[in-house]
Write a structure and sequence with these properties.
180 residues; OB fold (Dihydrolipoamide Acetyltransferase, E2P); 6-stranded mixed sheet; Chemotaxis protein CheW; CheW-lke_dom; CheW-like_dom_sf
Length: 180
């Protein structure tokens, strides 16, 4: 019970901070999440509502990273396991969402992106803004177009920006059919 209360408090604080961020000066801000052991930053302008990982309806012949369809506040949305999609864990690694940890969350894309999809992440890590992070120099590694800059926080953790608008247009991301 204490874990559930702590999670509710975290979500309440995140909601308050989201509201504060919207009313403050336009400083670059992100929702920080963890998936597959890595830290990611979703631009707040592109991230939508956060949900607890609930019941999913499987889609036959879908790619292993496409977990199924969920009813998120009356909207049917596809749910993608971010760690699997990025190759950070194999299709059989980790528990299925129904058996996942209490920290698993589903982050919907902002409705302005006009795509009904959400990303399953392992853990919410709060909000970050540009004043808390130092952008790392380009290392020359070729990355997909939806991968933005890399940042380092005060404790040395690396965070990678994922541009959800670009991800929503990525050809591989849109091709959910797996091997038959």
């Amino acid at each position: 019970m204490a874990n559930k209360e702590a999670l509710r408090e975290l979500q309440g604080r995140l909601a308050e901070r989201l509201h504060e961020v919207k009313t403050q000066e336009r400083l670059q801000s992100w929702l920080a999440v963890e998936s597959g052991g890595c830290g990611f930053l979703f631009p707040l302008s592109e991230a939508g509502e956060i949900f607890q990982c609930g019941a999913l309806v499987k889609v036959p012949h879908a790619a292993p990273w496409y977990l199924g369809v969920a009813n998120l506040r009356g909207v049917l949305s596809g749910v993608v396991d971010l760690g699997r999609y990025l190759g950070l864990r194999g299709p059989s690694a980790g528990a299925e969402p129904a058996e996942g940890s209490e920290q698993d969350r589903v982050v919907a894309f902002n409705p302005s992106l006009d795509v009904n999809v959400a990303l399953r992440v392992d853990h919410l890590a709060g909000l970050r803004n540009a004043s808390q992070l130092m952008q790392m120099p380009d290392d020359g590694v070729v990355r997909p177009g939806f991968v933005g800059a890399r940042y380092r926080d005060a404790v040395g953790r690396i965070w990678v920006e994922l541009r959800l608008a670009a991800l929503a247009r990525d050809e591989r991301f849109l091709r959910i059919v797996g091997a038959l």
